[in-house]
Write a structure and sequence with these properties.
Length: about 425
């Protein structure tokens, strides 16, 4: 069974004249937009400022090792390999790349990135990046549960509008994860004349939109142009509301790892599609939707503000910080939660417990047994702190290969060194 990389290897020698554009081609271009193009691709929307994918690949080759050391969460071996085969292939190498933007604003809680591609005079492809490694970006994702407008959506609307002003041809928009949400949202918020020029919108395992958007005229004008793909164990792609039918793709991964498009199965020139989601995906979808319906938008905001505040207070800036020290940060998380003021601790406990309670009740309803199950009793913050730090703490068994332990240790030391360098840069002696 193949994936995006094997697809490019199989069809990369054929131009778009030899073999028409497929949805997989669009996903290929969407996926490589996760790589850091800040010092390579121009921010200008003018086509004359563009470089080719072949040139991009050569320039990225020079910086890839350093970039991967700094950000192993985003700059994976698979993404590096995908760009390498894409940039050297006859099919993609001459595609023009330009209009790159990458804006993270901690004060606004904004993480936005986009780029555009062009290989035909009459068509332009705009790609919105999904969530990156920044904790700010992850917090912004959860803001979508209680807000009908997040900062990245405002930037996406403006980015698409400016592209439409400078380019008179057809517009096509694509994005994975949050990028798919931005694609649909930005399209829905354009003037009607721009919306008529939009040909296709791709949402790859992307959250829907806030329920208040569904009935707007702008959304209704573009929703029929959207295509939606999700893996069979999707979690992210079922969040929020959507009127776009989905195609279910078989994935090699399990759980949240299925979110990665590089795990999706491809046979020849088409996705391997399935007819139904996994039970876990369906239950998670029911849980999340019921939870966000029961909890008020105000309480959701307070809950996520408090949740992420704990990590920011610990000095966590990216998921790379937590990735290789998960147990340590969870211990610190519960300790800090215990030390919070009463109001913040109450909202964290009440709303968090409700999420687990709803999941448990939904799971119970799916069982076809007559035995009455016990009521779920969740621990207090004090009990959680004790379980992680006290004499009778919960034992955590972890087994890993020697190779994986070496890799984990390397990135732990690399993160410590990076933080030290940043501290020295801010406060030179």
């Amino acid at each position: 069974m193949g994936n995006l990389i094997t697809y490019v290897q199989q069809y990369g020698a054929q131009t778009f004249k030899d073999k028409s554009l497929t949805d997989i081609d669009i996903l290929v271009l969407t996926e490589i937009a996760y790589l850091p193009f800040d010092e390579i691709v121009s921010s200008s929307f003018e086509e004359k400022a563009a470089i080719s994918l072949n040139q991009l690949g050569k320039k990225f080759e020079i910086i890839k090792e350093k970039e991967q050391e700094n950000n192993p969460f985003m700059i994976t071996e698979e993404r590096i390999q995908l760009l390498d085969v894409v940039s050297k292939s006859l099919r993609y190498k001459d595609i023009k790349v330009f209009g790159f933007m990458n804006d993270i604003d901690d004060e606004l809680t904004k993480q936005f990135a986009a780029v555009c591609y062009q290989w035909e005079d009459e068509n332009r492809w705009i790609i919105f990046r999904g969530t990156d490694e920044s904790l700010t970006g992850w917090k912004e994702d959860f803001m979508m549960t209680y807000s009908d407008l997040i900062p990245a959506q405002t930037d996406a609307i403006e980015y698409l509008r400016k592209q439409a002003e400078l380019f008179s041809g057809s517009l096509n928009i694509s994005g994975h994860s949050k990028g798919g949400n931005l694609s649909l949202y930005a399209s829905a918020m354009q003037e009607e004349d721009i919306q008529h020029r939009i040909q296709q919108i791709y949402c790859w395992d992307a959250p829907g939109v806030h329920r208040s958007i569904l009935g707007t005229e702008g959304y209704q004008r573009v929703v029929s142009k959207a295509k939606r793909y999700i893996p069979q164990d999707s979690i992210v792609g079922l969040m929020l509301e959507s009127q776009v039918p989905y195609h279910i793709i078989e994935s090699q991964g399990s759980g949240i790892s299925q979110h990665s498009a590089l795990m999706w199965n491809i046979e020849d020139d088409h996705f391997v599609e399935l007819t139904e989601l996994t039970k876990n995906s369906q239950l998670t979808d029911q849980t999340f939707k019921q939870w966000t319906e029961v909890v008020s938008d105000e309480d959701l905001k307070l809950f996520f503000d408090t949740f992420f505040e704990l990590f920011f207070e610990m000095g966590v800036e990216t998921v790379n910080d937590v990735y290789y020290n998960f147990r340590l940060y969870m211990q610190k998380f519960f300790e800090k939660a215990y030390q919070m003021d009463t109001e913040k601790r109450e909202i964290l406990l009440r709303v968090g417990r409700l999420l687990f309670q709803i999941r448990y009740e939904i799971w119970k309803d799916t069982l076809s047994i007559s035995v009455e199950l016990p009521t779920l009793t969740l621990p207090s913050v004090e009990e959680l702190v004790e379980s992680w730090t006290g004499e009778h703490r919960i034992p955590v068994a972890y087994q890993s290969t020697e190779e994986n332990e070496e890799i984990r240790h390397y990135y732990q030391e690399r993160q410590k060194q990076k933080k030290l360098e940043m501290k020295q840069a801010k406060h030179p002696e």
